[in-house]
Amino acid sequence: xxxxxxxxxxxxGIYGVLDTPFSLLGFxxxxxVVFLLFIVCAIMLLVNKTPKFISFVMNKYPKTTYYLAAxxxxxxFMIIIGFAMMGSYLIFGYADGVLxxxxxxxxxxxxLSAIISLIVAYIKAQKTKVNLS
Length: 133
What we know:
The structure is a single chain. The chain has helices at 6-25, 28-46, 52-60, 62-71, 73-92, 96-128. It contains six helices and no strands. With 133 residues, the chain is mainly α. The mean pLDDT is 86.
């Protein structure tokens, strides 16, 4: 099961980088297609089959892969917390405004998490002098 491996983190990083512009600019259809591809690739990793584009990116761009893996946990976190928020919304029947505030808070948390993760990855790479090239 490769779901918890570096390939899964790189997949999450690629998904986060590709999906964010489309989501923010309002292209929901493209964002939905990217999400569907993300789910299909995650299922492939679950059954020990690595998609070729992930292997290509990991072999061709090791430095980029390091930073993609650093932020790769965020999409998984967002999906799990998003489902938990929607479930609590349906169970407790919050007002629509409360759900809006919760989702906005989740988006801000994801942005701050990405910034912090990238800073930590950069400091770690500089401190340990990892040969990423």
